[in-house]
Amino acid sequence: MVTAWRSTVAAKELTVHERQEHGASTAAWRATSYWEGMAASQPNKPTMKEDGEDEMAGWWEKAVKKLREEDAAKLKKKKEEELEKERKRKQTAANAMRAREQALMRKVEEAQKKRQHDFEERTMKLWAIAAEKEERDNQIFIERVVKEAHLIRKREEEEEEERKKKKGKGPCSTQ
Question: Would you kindly state where each structural domain of the chain is located, as residue ranges?
Answer without folding.
Answer: 1-47
